[in-house]
Each structure stands twice: as C-alpha cells, then as structure tokens.
Design brief:
This protein is α+β, with helices and mostly antiparallel strands. The chain is built from 4 helices and 4 strands; from the N terminus they run H-E-H-E-E-H-H-E. 50% of the residues lie in helices and 19% in strands. Strands 2-3-1-4 form a 4-stranded antiparallel β-sheet.
Length: 145
C-alpha cells in the first residue's frame, strides 16, 4: 500500500512538472508573439484641410497601411473644440521597429499612395508640420500586450 502511494505521489509530481513545462512554454510563445510595438501618430493640418485628410484616410489610405503590414488600432479626432478642427491622432501596430521601418518604406514607395498623395494635395499641403510620432511598448500589465 505504501508503494502504491509513493508511486501515485511520483506520478502526480511528473504530471505537475509536465503541466508546468507546458505553461512555461506557452508563456514563452505568447511573450514572443506579443512583442508588438505601437506607433502613435498625431497630424496637425493646415486650416480647413482636416476633412480632406480624413477623406483620404477613409478612402483607401488605411487599406494601404494593411497592405504594407501595419495593423490599425484606432483613429481619433480630439474632443477639444479647437484641436478637433485640425488634428488627427491614430495608432498602428507593428511586429517590431524593423517591421515598422520596412512598412513605412514600402508604403512611401507604393505608386497608389504616391498618386493618392499627389491628387489630394493639389490645393496645398495638408499638414502644418511634420507628424508627431511616438513608438510605445506595452507594459507587462497592459491589455495590449
């Protein structure tokens, strides 16, 4: 009887070790898959140009982001009355910073994007300044991880 208990205890430890090994392995896989980097971009337009910029984003620019490997997270206009007249804030996700650089490079070279940019800026440039760009890494406790 004592031998059966000892074997049962040993079997339990083996199963526990096996399950713990799977859990650690799954955690490692999830951690490796969740090393995304998020890019927050703020565009400030010249007076009266925000509606044109929003039309361009909604009219195919986001599709080009997707085509070139970017994941759309969200697109916003500030709730502040003044900023809502000339500001677009959006976030895209990339697998890592190298992927971000490659995506933006391919996006900028895409003939569809080049034509879209040319045709929508015939009456002057949209942006009052260069976009503000901030890359973000999720914290360990972030739901975005």
């Amino acid at each position: 009887m004592q031998m059966i208990r000892k074997n049962a205890k040993m079997a339990g430890l083996v199963v526990l070790a096996f399950v713990a090994g799977i859990a650690v392995n799954q955690y490692s896989v999830l951690k490796a898959q969740s090393n995304k980097v998020y890019e927050l971009r703020t565009y400030t337009t010249n007076e009266g140009k925000l509606p044109l910029l929003l039309d361009r984003f909604g009219g195919g620019e986001i599709d080009l982001f997707i085509k070139h490997g970017m994941t759309s997270v969200g697109y916003w206009v500030p709730d502040d009355e003044e900023l809502s007249k000339n500001t677009l804030v959006y976030m895209v996700a990339h697998d890592n910073r190298d992927a971000a650089a490659a995506s933006w490079r391919a996006f900028g070279q895409d003939p569809v994007w080049q034509e879209m940019s040319r045709s929508t800026q015939v009456d002057g440039q949209f942006l009052a300044q260069r976009p503000e760009v901030l890359f973000l890494n999720p914290t360990d406790f972030s739901p975005a991880k």
